[in-house]
Write a structure and sequence with these properties.
Blueprint lengths: L12 H11 L5 E5 L16 E9 L2 H11 L25 H10 L13 H9 L4 H9 L2 H8 L17 E9 L2 E5 L7 E5 L9 H6 L1 H10 L8 E7 L2
Antiparallel strand pairs: 1-6, 2-3, 2-6, 3-4, 4-5
């Protein structure tokens, strides 16, 4: 059977706010553009603490090599259950990386406290907790509400809908949960613990940026890259 392939979503607040609302995340939260990683005045519009970052990055040769080196020795992820530090989904739907990134932001860490009771998002989260990796992937693959929510957003944003199979870019969610910074991406071997964060350090803190997206930027710079273009939005309480 041919694998499902969806239309790629843009990574901007308009798209992700609508997707979050459609799935059932409270309107108390909102995504905000992150215009700079090192100029405080350019992120002063984002209420703090920020709970998650959703980033889309090009798969540069340096980052690709690093990803392969990190994943090669890892076994398939076997986490599940209520004691699992984060809920992670393996991606089996083509071009669904943006919607799965949104899920990773919304169902982990403090954002999960803002899921609307009885919503599709609550059901996806509840049903996923006792499942292992393959069964979780199947849960999303077969979820009609998840697919309909994605489809409702494909015409939003500034560019025409795209459905190319290999855009060379990856959505990555960085979430603070249980005092750790987690890197969550459906095409990796599992969730990645990038290190500890203090109580007063959110995902936009200097340490979190250094451990997360800053690490990817350095990989490219150290390999001689000069133009790592990316888009980054932050999930926070609404101002």
């Amino acid at each position: 059977m041919e694998k499902k392939t969806w239309v790629v979503l843009e990574n901007n607040p308009e798209v992700m706010n609508q997707l979050a609302a459609r799935l059932g995340l409270s309107s108390e939260l909102s995504f905000y553009d992150v215009w700079s990683l090192d100029e405080p005045e350019l992120i002063a519009h984002i209420p703090r603490p920020a709970f998650a970052l959703l980033v889309i990055l090009p798969l540069t040769p340096a980052w690709k090599e690093n990803r392969q080196a990190e994943d090669v020795e890892k076994d398939d992820y076997d986490g599940y259950g209520p004691e699992e530090p984060v809920i992670w989904f393996r991606q089996t739907i083509g071009n669904a990386c943006g919607s799965i990134g949104l899920l990773h932001c919304a169902i982990n860490g403090p954002a999960a406290e803002h899921i609307q009771p009885g919503s599709d998002l609550e059901k996806i989260r509840r049903d996923a907790i006792p499942l292992k990796m393959t069964e979780r992937a199947d849960l999303l693959y077969n979820s009609v509400p998840f697919e309909e929510a994605h489809k409702s957003c494909v015409h939003l944003g500034d560019t025409a809908p795209r459905n190319e199979g290999a855009l060379g870019q990856h959505f990555v969610a960085f979430v603070k949960a249980n005092g750790r910074l987690w890197e969550l991406e459906g095409s990796r071997k599992g969730p990645i613990d990038r290190g500890s964060l203090k109580d007063d350090e959110d995902v936009l803190s200097s340490k979190a940026l250094d451990l997360g997206i800053g690490r990817v930027i350095r990989l490219d710079q150290e390999a001689g890259g000069a133009d790592l273009r990316f888009s980054c939005i932050a999930l926070s309480r609404k101002a």
